[in-house]
Amino acid sequence: MPRRLLAPALAALLCACASGAPGTGPSATARLLPVRGPGAQGSVDLLQAEGVLRVFGTVRGLAPNAQYLLRVRDADGCAAPGEGRTAPPGAAPAHAASADRLPNLHADATGTATFSFDVRALSLDGTAGVLGRGLEVLAQPEGPGDAAGRRLACGTIRPR
Protein backbone atom coordinates (compact mmCIF):
# COMPACT_ATOMS: atom_id res chain seq x y z
CA MET A 1 0.00 0.00 0.00
CA PRO A 2 1.47 3.39 -0.90
CA ARG A 3 2.50 5.53 2.08
CA ARG A 4 0.04 8.32 1.22
CA LEU A 5 -2.88 5.84 1.63
CA LEU A 6 -1.52 4.13 4.74
CA ALA A 7 -2.07 7.05 7.16
CA PRO A 8 -5.75 7.67 6.23
CA ALA A 9 -6.46 3.91 6.35
CA LEU A 10 -4.86 3.63 9.77
CA ALA A 11 -6.80 6.66 11.05
CA ALA A 12 -10.09 5.20 9.77
CA LEU A 13 -9.33 1.88 11.47
CA LEU A 14 -8.57 3.59 14.79
CA CYS A 15 -11.79 5.64 14.63
CA ALA A 16 -13.86 2.54 13.86
CA CYS A 17 -12.36 0.65 16.81
CA ALA A 18 -12.84 3.58 19.19
CA SER A 19 -16.51 4.06 18.29
CA GLY A 20 -17.39 0.46 19.17
CA ALA A 21 -15.10 0.14 22.15
CA PRO A 22 -16.48 -1.55 25.26
CA GLY A 23 -17.32 0.92 28.00
CA THR A 24 -18.80 3.51 25.67
CA GLY A 25 -22.46 4.35 25.31
CA PRO A 26 -25.27 5.81 27.41
CA SER A 27 -24.85 5.27 31.14
CA ALA A 28 -26.66 5.76 34.43
CA THR A 29 -26.00 5.38 38.13
CA ALA A 30 -27.91 4.67 41.33
CA ARG A 31 -26.69 5.64 44.78
CA LEU A 32 -28.07 3.12 47.26
CA LEU A 33 -28.78 4.48 50.73
CA PRO A 34 -29.87 2.61 53.88
CA VAL A 35 -33.64 2.36 54.38
CA ARG A 36 -33.32 2.80 58.18
CA GLY A 37 -30.35 4.12 60.15
CA PRO A 38 -26.83 2.99 59.34
CA GLY A 39 -26.68 -0.08 57.18
CA ALA A 40 -26.30 -1.28 53.63
CA GLN A 41 -25.25 1.30 51.08
CA GLY A 42 -23.41 1.43 47.80
CA SER A 43 -23.45 2.45 44.19
CA VAL A 44 -24.52 0.76 40.98
CA ASP A 45 -23.47 1.82 37.50
CA LEU A 46 -25.38 0.86 34.36
CA LEU A 47 -24.03 1.01 30.83
CA GLN A 48 -25.96 0.37 27.60
CA ALA A 49 -23.53 -1.38 25.24
CA GLU A 50 -23.57 -4.04 22.56
CA GLY A 51 -27.29 -4.81 22.95
CA VAL A 52 -27.14 -5.45 26.70
CA LEU A 53 -27.40 -3.44 29.88
CA ARG A 54 -24.19 -3.88 31.84
CA VAL A 55 -24.73 -3.58 35.60
CA PHE A 56 -21.84 -3.34 38.05
CA GLY A 57 -21.32 -2.02 41.54
CA THR A 58 -20.58 -2.53 45.21
CA VAL A 59 -22.85 -2.72 48.26
CA ARG A 60 -21.30 -2.53 51.75
CA GLY A 61 -22.73 -2.99 55.24
CA LEU A 62 -24.35 -6.36 54.56
CA ALA A 63 -24.25 -9.42 56.80
CA PRO A 64 -21.12 -11.45 55.96
CA ASN A 65 -21.40 -14.51 53.71
CA ALA A 66 -25.08 -13.96 52.95
CA GLN A 67 -27.16 -13.76 49.80
CA TYR A 68 -29.25 -10.73 48.75
CA LEU A 69 -31.57 -9.70 45.97
CA LEU A 70 -31.05 -6.66 43.74
CA ARG A 71 -34.36 -5.61 42.16
CA VAL A 72 -35.54 -2.90 39.77
CA ARG A 73 -38.87 -1.32 40.75
CA ASP A 74 -41.39 0.65 38.69
CA ALA A 75 -41.52 3.42 41.30
CA ASP A 76 -38.83 5.82 42.45
CA GLY A 77 -36.16 3.98 44.45
CA CYS A 78 -37.37 4.65 47.97
CA ALA A 79 -41.15 4.59 47.53
CA ALA A 80 -42.99 2.76 50.32
CA PRO A 81 -42.35 -1.00 50.23
CA GLY A 82 -45.82 -1.89 48.91
CA GLU A 83 -45.64 0.72 46.16
CA GLY A 84 -43.93 0.39 42.82
CA ARG A 85 -44.11 -3.35 42.41
CA THR A 86 -43.56 -4.42 38.86
CA ALA A 87 -47.01 -6.02 38.72
CA PRO A 88 -49.72 -7.21 41.12
CA PRO A 89 -49.23 -10.79 42.37
CA GLY A 90 -50.08 -13.23 39.59
CA ALA A 91 -50.07 -10.58 36.84
CA ALA A 92 -47.44 -10.31 34.14
CA PRO A 93 -45.14 -7.29 34.33
CA ALA A 94 -45.62 -4.49 31.80
CA HIS A 95 -42.12 -5.14 30.46
CA ALA A 96 -40.25 -8.40 29.84
CA ALA A 97 -41.14 -11.26 32.18
CA SER A 98 -39.06 -11.24 35.38
CA ALA A 99 -36.96 -8.38 34.02
CA ASP A 100 -37.06 -6.67 37.41
CA ARG A 101 -35.28 -9.59 39.05
CA LEU A 102 -31.54 -9.27 38.69
CA PRO A 103 -28.98 -11.90 39.71
CA ASN A 104 -28.56 -12.44 43.45
CA LEU A 105 -25.78 -10.62 45.27
CA HIS A 106 -23.37 -12.54 47.48
CA ALA A 107 -21.67 -10.70 50.36
CA ASP A 108 -18.14 -11.76 51.19
CA ALA A 109 -16.68 -12.28 54.68
CA THR A 110 -16.49 -8.49 55.18
CA GLY A 111 -20.16 -7.91 54.27
CA THR A 112 -19.36 -6.45 50.84
CA ALA A 113 -21.02 -7.57 47.61
CA THR A 114 -19.15 -6.62 44.44
CA PHE A 115 -20.90 -7.57 41.22
CA SER A 116 -20.94 -7.28 37.46
CA PHE A 117 -23.44 -8.84 35.05
CA ASP A 118 -25.24 -8.24 31.75
CA VAL A 119 -29.03 -8.05 31.41
CA ARG A 120 -30.70 -8.45 28.01
CA ALA A 121 -34.32 -7.90 29.15
CA LEU A 122 -33.70 -4.29 30.30
CA SER A 123 -32.28 -1.12 28.77
CA LEU A 124 -31.69 2.44 29.89
CA ASP A 125 -34.69 3.78 27.95
CA GLY A 126 -37.61 2.57 25.85
CA THR A 127 -40.32 0.13 26.93
CA ALA A 128 -37.86 -1.86 29.07
CA GLY A 129 -36.12 1.29 30.30
CA VAL A 130 -34.88 1.67 33.86
CA LEU A 131 -34.11 5.41 33.99
CA GLY A 132 -36.08 7.04 36.81
CA ARG A 133 -37.01 3.66 38.25
CA GLY A 134 -35.95 2.43 41.65
CA LEU A 135 -33.27 -0.05 42.58
CA GLU A 136 -33.38 -1.87 45.90
CA VAL A 137 -31.43 -4.44 47.89
CA LEU A 138 -33.55 -6.99 49.77
CA ALA A 139 -32.39 -9.02 52.78
CA GLN A 140 -32.97 -12.33 51.04
CA PRO A 141 -33.70 -13.59 47.54
CA GLU A 142 -37.33 -13.76 46.46
CA GLY A 143 -38.76 -17.14 47.29
CA PRO A 144 -41.63 -19.18 45.90
CA GLY A 145 -44.79 -17.12 45.63
CA ASP A 146 -42.81 -13.88 45.18
CA ALA A 147 -42.10 -13.50 48.92
CA ALA A 148 -39.55 -10.71 49.21
CA GLY A 149 -37.25 -10.04 52.12
CA ARG A 150 -36.86 -6.80 54.08
CA ARG A 151 -35.56 -3.81 52.11
CA LEU A 152 -32.09 -2.75 53.23
CA ALA A 153 -31.10 -0.06 50.72
CA CYS A 154 -32.71 1.81 47.87
CA GLY A 155 -32.01 4.47 45.26
CA THR A 156 -33.15 5.88 41.93
CA ILE A 157 -31.49 5.13 38.59
CA ARG A 158 -30.43 8.47 37.09
CA PRO A 159 -28.62 9.30 33.84
CA ARG A 160 -24.97 10.31 34.07
Topology overview:
Blueprint: H1 3-19, E1 27-34, E2 41-49, E3 52-60, E4 67-73, E5 105-106, E6 113-119, E7 134-138, E8 151-156, E9 158-159
Explain the overall architecture:
The protein is 11% helix and 34% strand. With 160 residues, the protein is mainly beta. Strands 1, 2, 3, 4, 5, 6, 7, 8 and 9 form a 9-stranded antiparallel sheet that branches. The protein starts with a helix and ends with a strand. Mean pLDDT is 76; it is low at 5-22 and 83-98.
What structural class do you assign from the helix and strand content? mainly beta
SSE string: HEEEEEEEEE
C-alpha-based Rg, rounded: 19 Å
Mean pLDDT over the full residue set: 76
- Indicate the overall shape: globular
Strand content: 25-35%
Biggest sheet descriptor: 9 strands, antiparallel
Uncertain ranges: 5-22, 83-98
Output the number of helix runs: 1
Measured as a percent range, the helix fraction is 10-25%
Give the N-terminus to C-terminus distance in angstroms: 43 Å
Number of strands: 9
Keyphrases for this structure?
160 residues, mainly beta, 9 strands, nine-stranded antiparallel sheet, 11% helix, 1 helix, single chain, globular
